């Protein structure tokens, strides 16, 4: 039993599907609590909530958001208007909500966490089925850490006549937090690692480069490939999170569970953040490796900053983000030159984008306009997406897609879910891609994708047998 109140776990679970069809409304309580370890919170009441959790950390504002239990699920398939559909359903639920949150801190109170698939019109693979083309959760229990402050939010559906009693839920908050403790996690052994169809992939890369050189109708296409790993036992999501948390502290770390597979990663790439009317986005494209020797590492960085092919790859992303955001922003500030962003295995060209949004602009509008940027799709978008469908012949699922959160006040943040993979029982599928332009070289791009597998490989690698 999770909390000592009339709203015990089981009761909440039985209430949760009745929402819209009855007179039950969303009731949400937020309380400040003592700071606890977010991974330990993720493990509460294990294994009752397996398949019903999410995890998020941002390196910039030291935010962690952890959700446990699904109070409500938003799911969508093959829809052109999936961004506005999810937004409309969310707003409908919020319209009647009773929100007890005196703090108004971003990321507290009722919050939607989830993401969209990369391309609703690509081939569909069964392994991505549970994710659909949009999957979001409103959690039952949620921990939010911003700097030194820590909040607990509890959400439930309640009938109007019971509302005066639901305040009792708050009494159980401290009890819940006092019982948060880390449980031990072990890693299974890696038994097989397979890079899928590398020769075919290299052939596709060469064909795309030929088209980029000759057709005059397309400037950039991002092609990705897949790595399949098998383990002796099912991989545990808390183990993967713990590894990502210690190894990838400069990236956004995310986990989205379903009852049949979880999507995890450590991405350095923000798609969009919105706090009140402040908008932040990122152009991240153009890559080179790292070196343990600081002098060599700096040289590599300087090479990247002066490399025509990478600067072009990058500039196309800046240009598209500018075009996408301009109609929604009063002001837009974009530096003329990129700088370097370094993560443990790779360095990138990086241009931050800041703006002030026009009234009435929601984070879902911005996500819908920005996705897919040419960092993961190409230029022009439609032609590039068609080439990706024809050449990759795989389902990217949620890889390279927008993943993130929005709270009841419209604040939120979405990242581009790269350096990521699907964890499904004893199998894991990792993804990595590269931006192809006319000057690309297939073997260099193969190397670039190998480096991009590293963050997830290290996190889930386990011990080879
Ligand atoms: C496609 C990926 O990364 C993207 C492609 C990059 C490139 O080609 O230089 C760099 C950063 C990302 O925008 C990936 O990591 O899978
Ligand atoms: Mg590249």
UniProtKB/TrEMBL annotation:
<dbReference type="InterPro" id="IPR004561">
    <property type="entry name" value="IsoChor_synthase"/>
</dbReference>
<dbReference type="GO" id="GO:0008909">
    <property type="term" value="F:isochorismate synthase activity"/>
</dbReference>
<dbReference type="InterPro" id="IPR015890">
    <property type="entry name" value="Chorismate_C"/>
</dbReference>
<feature type="domain" description="Chorismate-utilising enzyme C-terminal">
    <location>
        <begin position="200"/>
        <end position="452"/>
    </location>
</feature>
<dbReference type="InterPro" id="IPR005801">
    <property type="entry name" value="ADC_synthase"/>
</dbReference>
<dbReference type="Pfam" id="PF00425">
    <property type="entry name" value="Chorismate_bind"/>
</dbReference>
<comment type="similarity">
    <text>Belongs to the isochorismate synthase family.</text>
</comment>
<protein>
    <recommendedName>
        <fullName>isochorismate synthase</fullName>
        <ecNumber>5.4.4.2</ecNumber>
    </recommendedName>
</protein>
<dbReference type="GO" id="GO:0009697">
    <property type="term" value="P:salicylic acid biosynthetic process"/>
</dbReference>
<keyword id="KW-0413">Isomerase</keyword>
């Amino acid at each position: 039993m999770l909390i000592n109140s009339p709203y015990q776990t089981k009761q909440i679970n039985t209430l949760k599907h009745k929402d819209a069809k009855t007179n039950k409304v969303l009731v949400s309580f937020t309380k400040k609590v003592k700071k606890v370890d977010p991974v330990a919170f993720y493990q509460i009441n294990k294994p009752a909530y397996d398949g019903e959790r999410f995890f998020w950390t941002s390196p910039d504002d030291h935010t962690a958001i952890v959700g446990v239990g699904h109070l409500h699920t938003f799911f969508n398939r093959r829809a052109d208007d999936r961004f506005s559909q999810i937004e409309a359903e969310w707003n409908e639920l919020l319209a009647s909500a009773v929100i007890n949150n005196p703090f108004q801190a971003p990321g507290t109170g009722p919050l939607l966490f989830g993401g969209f698939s990369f391309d609703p019109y690509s081939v569909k693979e069964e392994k991505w089925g549970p994710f659909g083309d949009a999957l979001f959760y409103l959690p039952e229990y949620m921990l939010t850490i911003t700097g030194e402050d820590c909040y607990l939010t509890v959400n439930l559906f309640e009938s109007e006549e019971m509302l005066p009693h639901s305040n009792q839920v708050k009494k159980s908050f401290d009890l819940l937090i006092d019982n948060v403790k880390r449980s031990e996690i072990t890693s299974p052994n890696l038994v097989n690692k397979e890079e899928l169809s590398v020769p075919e992939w290299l052939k596709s890369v060469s064909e795309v480069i030929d088209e980029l050189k000759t057709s005059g109708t397309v400037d950039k296409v991002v092609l990705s490939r897949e790595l399949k790993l098998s383990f002796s036992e099912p991989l545990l999501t808390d183990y993967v999170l713990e590894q990502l948390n210690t190894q990838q502290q400069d990236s956004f770390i995310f986990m989205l569970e379903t009852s049949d597979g979880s999507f995890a990663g450590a991405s350095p790439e923000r798609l969009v953040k919105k706090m009140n009317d402040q908008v932040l986005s990122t152009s991240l494209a153009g890559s080179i490796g790292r070196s343990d020797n600081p002098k060599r590492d700096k040289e590599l960085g300087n090479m990247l900053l002066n490399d025509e092919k990478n600067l072009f790859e990058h500039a196309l992303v800046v240009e598209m983000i500018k075009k996408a955001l301009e109609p929604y922003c009063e002001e837009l500030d974009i530096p003329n030159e990129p700088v370097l962003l370094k993560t443990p295995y790779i360095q990138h060209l990086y241009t931050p984008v800041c703006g002030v949004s026009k009234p009435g602009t929601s984070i879902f509008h911005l996500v819908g306009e920005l996705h897919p940027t040419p960092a993961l799709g190409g230029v022009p978008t439609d032609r590039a997406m068609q080439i990706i469908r024809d050449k990759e012949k795989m389902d990217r699922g949620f890889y390279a897609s927008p993943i993130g959160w929005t709270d009841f006040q419209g604040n939120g943040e979405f990242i581009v879910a790269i350096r990521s993979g699907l964890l499904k029982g004893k199998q894991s599928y990792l993804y990595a891609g590269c931006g192809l332009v006319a000057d690309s070289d297939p073997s260099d791009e193969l190397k670039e994708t190998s480096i991009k597998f590293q963050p997830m490989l290290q996190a889930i690698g386990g011990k080879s047998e």
